[in-house]
Amino acid sequence: MNQVGNLLLLPGDGIGPEVMGEVERVIGWLGDRQGMKFECERDLVGGSALDAHGLPLAESTLGLAKAADAVVFGAVGGPQYDANPFHLKPEQGLLQLRKELDLFANLRPAMVFPALAEASSLKKELVEGLDILILRELTGGVYFGEPRGIETLPDGTKRAVDTQVYTTPEIRRIAAVGFELAKKRRNHVTSVEKANVMHTGVLWREEVTKLHAEAFQDVELAHMYADNCAMQLVRRPKQFDVIVTDNLFGDLLSDAAAMLTGSLGMLPSASLGAPDQAGRRKALYEPVHGSAPDIAGQGKANPLAMLLSFAMTLRYSFDLGLEADRLEKAIASVLDQGYRTPDIMQPGMREVSTTAMGQAVLDILDASLG
Ligand code: IPM
Ligand code: MG
Q: Is 225 an active-site residue?
C-alpha cells in the first residue's frame, strides 16, 4: 500500500456530511482498488463545532488543519445561528481557517459538462464548452479589513463600518498566481476591480499592470470593472479565461459563474497558500455551494461539487493528475448516462439520491480499471 498523505476531513453542517460521505467512499476506493492510502482525520467545524464546544473552530481543529497535507471541507451554516454574534457564527470557522493557513489564492473553475449545457439558465450556445477560472483573493479585502464593527451613536442610531484594504504584496501575489495559471490555460487574464470609484481598485489596477510589464508580458491582460464583469459573465461568458479579483467581488462573481454551469451544486474550489521551501502549499478544498439546510438529511444533495473538489485535492496537493482526471471523467460519464440529483434534474433523465450518484461514480471508476 502506497501512503499518499494525510487529510483532515471537515464535513461541517447541513448537507456537508452527506456530500463528504461520498468523498470518503472515493478515498476508500482509492485504497482498495488503487493501493493509495490516505491517512484521514475527521473533525467538527462551523455549527456542529459550536454545538459541541461553543466555538466554530476549536484550537485543536486548527492544529490538525495546520498539520494536514490538505483539508477537505464540506459546508457550514444554518438558520439556528443567524442571531449569533459575529465571532460565534459558523462561517467564522471557515474564515479563520482561510486566514490562519494564509490560503490567499482561491481557484474557482466554472466548467460546463456537455450533458448539462441544457441545465444552465443561459442559452445552450452561450455556455456550451465553457471553461473559465475565477481566481479570488481570499485573505484580504473587506472580509478582514480593520476597523470593522457596529457602534451606537450618541443619538441612539447606529453606525457600521467595514474596511476594504489591499497592499502591494497582497495584490502582486494573487496576480502572479493568475498569470501562472493562465499560462497553462488559454493565456488570458482579466483583472477585475472598481478603479472608477475605489482606491483599492486604483492600486489593484496599477500593481497588476506593473507586475505584468515586469514578468508576464507573454500573457494577455485586460482590465474590467466588476459591475461590467458581472454583466459580461451572463452576456458572453466564453470571452473569459482567468478572472483575477478581490475577495468580495470574487465571492459574488463566482456564484454567478457557478450558475452558468447549471447548478451551484457543480462548482468545486481550491484554496492555496504560498509554496514553502519544499514547494508544498497549505490547501483547503471545498465546494462553492453552502450547507443548504433546507434539503439537509434528505439524500437530495448533489455530491458532484464535493467530488470535483476532491479531484482538485488529488491534482494540486498530491500531484495525482491521472487520478484526478479519472475522477473528473467518471463524473462527466454519470452525467452523460443521465444520472441527476434534483438540482440538475431535466426531463427524461434519471433522478437519483446523493448516495446513488456517488455509487454511479464509483461504478464508473471500477469500470475504468477494466
Ligand atoms: C464562499 C462563501 C463564504 C464566503 C461564506 C460561507 C463565509 O460564500 O466561500 O463563497 O463568503 O466567502
Ligand atoms: Mg460565496
A: no
Q: How many CB atoms lie within 10 A of CB 234?
A: 14
3-state secondary structure of 265: helix
Of 163, 160, 164, 169, nearest in space to 194 by CA = 164
The C-alpha atoms of residue 347 and residue 140 are separated, in whole angstroms, by: 43
Same domain, 196 and 317: no
**For residues 339 and 361, what is the distance between their CA atoms, to the nearest angstrom?**
10
Give catalytic status of residue 143 as yes or no.
yes
* Chunked mean pLDDT (size 10), the chain, 370 residues: 94 98 98 97 98 97 97 98 95 97 97 90 94 98 97 98 98 98 97 98 98 98 98 97 98 91 88 92 95 97 97 96 97 97 93 98 94
CB 165 within 8 A of CB 275: no
Query: Does residue 275 sit in the same domain as residue 355?
Result: yes
Q: Which residues contact 244 (CB under 8 A, 6 or more apart)?
A: 135, 137, 174, 175, 177, 178, 189, 190, 191, 192, 208
Residue 255 shares a structural domain with residue 184: yes
pLDDT reported for residue 226: 98
116 CA → ligand 2 middle, Å: 22
What residues line ligand 1, using a CB cutoff of 6 Å?
91, 94-95, 251, 288
- Structural domain contains residue 98: yes
The domain boundary, picked from 241, 260, 279, lies at 260
pLDDT recorded at residue 118: 86
Total domains in the chain come to 2
Query: Quick check: is 119 in a domain?
Result: no
CATH at 146:
3.40.718.10
Q: How far apart are CA 266 and CA 322, in angstroms?
A: 21
- Side-chain-side CA neighbours of residue 302 (13 Å): 26
Same domain, 256 and 138: yes
pTM summary value:
0.95
- Which range of residues forms the domain containing residue 363? 1-107+265-370
Probe target for ligand 1 pocket from 94, 104, 106, 264, with the most ligand atoms within 8 Å of CB? 94
Cβ burial, residue 289 (10 Å; 0-12/13-18/19+) = buried
**β-bridge pairing 268-272 and 283-287:** antiparallel
